[in-house]
UniProtKB/TrEMBL annotation:
PANTHER family: RIBONUCLEASE 3 (PTHR11207:SF0), RIBONUCLEASE III (PTHR11207). SMART domains: RIBOc. This is RNase III domain-containing protein. Keywords: RNA-binding, Signal. GO terms for molecular function: RNA binding. Residues 39-158 form the RNase III domain. InterPro entries: RNase_III_dom (IPR000999), RNase_III_sf (IPR036389).
């Protein structure tokens, strides 16, 4: 009898907790998983809290792991980073030549020299979900996850400016500068 009361109470709590104001919509059972813990830590490092944690979960899912993955988010994130970088560069120097602008944008979006470095500093190689046959530390994997974060933030916030601001808070105010996390 006592066991059935507990079961009824547990089912009741699981059913109502997502509807309680201020309570996360993530189920009680997923809060303790290592992946969920890593996502919570990542949000603290980003200094951005997702309204929909599922967006960050997807951003940290490589195509080798699932059909629901970060490919589209990475494309959006790359565009957010490039647009934000171009805006910052031209805001500082409106006479910057197109050649210099392209060169500097190439530096900031380069997989090897910038994107993967920033992603590794965040520890994304330890967070991104990949298939057993995929190396989570490969620069392309880390860079895609890094870019996907900013695509996910743009979708979560409903505007790319917020994602660009998070990028600059992590990357630094100038090209080539990565801030310690």
């Amino acid at each position: 009898m006592r066991s059935s009361r507990f079961t009824v109470l547990a089912v009741f709590l699981i059913a109502i907790l997502p509807h309680v104001p201020g309570h996360a919509t993530t189920s009680v059972l997923t809060l303790s998983s290592p992946f969920s813990t890593a996502l919570e830590t990542l949000q603290k490092q980003l200094r951005y809290t997702f309204t929909s944690i599922d967006l960050l979960r997807r951003a940290m899912t490589h195509p080798s792991f699932s059909e629901e993955n970060n490919k589209a988010f990475a494309i959006l994130g790359a565009a957010v980073i490039e647009t934000s970088a171009a805006f910052h560069l031209l805001s500082k120097d409106v006479d910057l030549s197109p050649k210099d602008l392209n060169r500097r944008l190439s530096q900031i979006t380069s997989v090897e020299s910038s994107c993967a470095v920033d992603g590794m500093r965040l520890g994304l190689h330890k967070v991104v979900r990949v298939s057993p046959k995929t190396n989570s530390s490969a620069p392309a994997v880390v860079c895609a996850a890094f870019r996907a974060i900013f695509g996910a933030i743009a979708i979560d916030a409903g505007k790319s400016d917020d994602a660009g601001n998070v990028f600059w808070s992590l990357h630094g105010a100038d090209l080539g500068i990565s801030l310690p996390i």
